[in-house]
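Entry:
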Amino acid sequence: MFKLKLLVFFFFVSGCLQHAFGQQLIDFKGTFEPLGNKVEILTDTNASLSLNQAIQSDGFKKSVSEYPNLGITPYAYWIKFTVRNSSSHNGLGIQLAQPTIDNVDFYQIDGDKVILANSSGQSKPFGTRLIRHQNYIYPVNVLPGQSSTFYFHIRSYKQLVLPLYLGTLEGVIINTANSDLLFGVYAGIILVMLLYNLFVYVTVKDVNYLYYVLYLFVVLLTQACLEGYIFRFVLSDRPVAANLSIYVSSALIGIAAIEFAKKFLSSKFYAPGLHKISYVFFLVYAIQIVLAFAGRFNTSYTIVLVAAMLSAIYVVIMAVVIAVRGYRAAKFFLIAWSVFIVCVVIYVLKDLNILFPYNKLTSSVLLIGSAFEAVLLSFALADKINIFKAEKEKSQEEALKALKENERIISEQNTMLEAKVVERTTELKQSNLELNKTLDNLRQAQGQLVEAEKMASLGQLTAGIAHEINNPINFVTGNIKPLSRDIDMVFEAMETIEQVALSDVGKDDKQKQISAYKEDLDFDYLVVEIKHLLKGIKEGANRTAEIVKGLRIFSRLDQDDLIKADINEGLESTLIIANNLLHDIKVVKEYGNLPKIECYAGKLNQVFLNLISNASYAIRQKFGDHKGGELLIKTTCHDEHMYITIKDNGIGMDDKTQKKVFEPFFTTKDVGQGTGLGMSIAYNTIKKHNGQFQLNSAPDEGAEFIIVLPLIFKIEN
């Protein structure tokens, strides 16, 4: 690239020399000085002019400002100047103290040759700079008494100001060191305030301090981005990210400032209308960030400058309004914030080239203002603590006065109450006697109602057991008579065979006589019939034993004690007891693998019986004596609970019925078919187990009751 540039210059030596000698010389005498009003500027509207074209151009115009402010434009600019070294120093330094410029191309021309060239900027890796500093520093050699011409090709999508300096290399380095020192002092102040307020937040737990800490962090981050330190030390190999960080942090500082101000000033309470306006600024800042990521850098930076000034003014107006309304903290906030607002306005107007020119003071005004603001706002927060302390002391004093007044009133009332207590005691004794009598009557009535429900269930249970046991017993008794007859025939056959065996006839005749007798008796069928009758008696006995076992499990004589029980076993025993209710009803059992749980087993079995009985009734109401009814019994276990589902496809319930189903004395059955206490007792039983009912139903779509029980039962006091 360097050789290509040299070749270009060789073709245009004469034009270069004429142009170089035709411009004003900067006579360098060894002092560090700005060059802004000694350079010439050419606007490159298409950012396409080459170095050769710039050298030949006659469109350069002399700058009249010590620090040229070229505004926020998409244009590129060529800057040229010629230096004659009238000092005794060989090594000179040129400094461009504007870290955020996107593209900076530098050329030193001596005669007809490019003796130094460098291409760097915010859009290129940090390592492309001749000296690794956030400002652009170019060490150049110009012999005493000699001259050299310099060109800059500059383009920036942000505010383009040219603080251009010339001095000895040592002087330039000292100037940059002073800039670093100034920022170091600023960063130290902000960090001290940040850590101090963070410590206060941890101590007093006042969220205002946390908001302020976050705000200080964003302020420091933004200044570090604008001054080029983030690019230099953090994102040196990521120029795109470093460039975007300027736009993002500039928006974040506005958002953080508004949020802190709103929290500190309690704007939601004191100025709700102004409080809502803040969201407009948040939308503007969001748009600005989106534009930056979309590559619309000029528009984005213009928006952030205008939004910064307007949001600062907005915060001031909000603080003034709240202060006028009597909130003391707003006055201190206004004092602290005003310094920063003035600095922000000066900084923005400087960037917009309105009213305030660029100089060392205006370029550093944001650092100065934010440092002062950090210190003053800390004082404001401290005063807020004093306000809280004073309010607390006043509140305690008022509370003490109120306590003394209450004590006096209580003393007077005690005297009156003592007299009334004696009077009322006599009345209460009489009332207590009547109340105890009423309570005894209620307990007796409650006991009678519960017993009535138990007797109803017992009647249903007795009928079911009688029906279930009668079937296998009748089967046994029915088989006993033919079995007895067949056994007599076997005994008679044994006697006949014995007589034939003891007779004097030959062996062959004996076998013929026995075979003829067995055939005549149909002995083979007799054996088969005896086995069949015995099998029937065995099945009847087993069925009876199964019913008795189910009854024993269902009844649980120890039902008033907590025991470890198998819920699946309880459901199975209940189905056995209720078998007569389930005639022509298809029962689907889906038992899960359940652990035994501690419970009142007998009471749970009564709940199951009640639900199965109601399901059977609902199915009969829908299907009558026809088939089609179905009852699902399902158990599952998940996490720390077990789920018992009893679902039917009966007549179902509407919303009104579902709301009353657990109320005492509510029933949908005909008079004489139910007491209306079954579901109420079931509900209380499940509640006693720390469980709950879930009900899903709709008219003509059946009903689903889900019982949820904890796996670990805890007795509640």
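Residues 464 and 580 are 6 Å apart (CA to CA).
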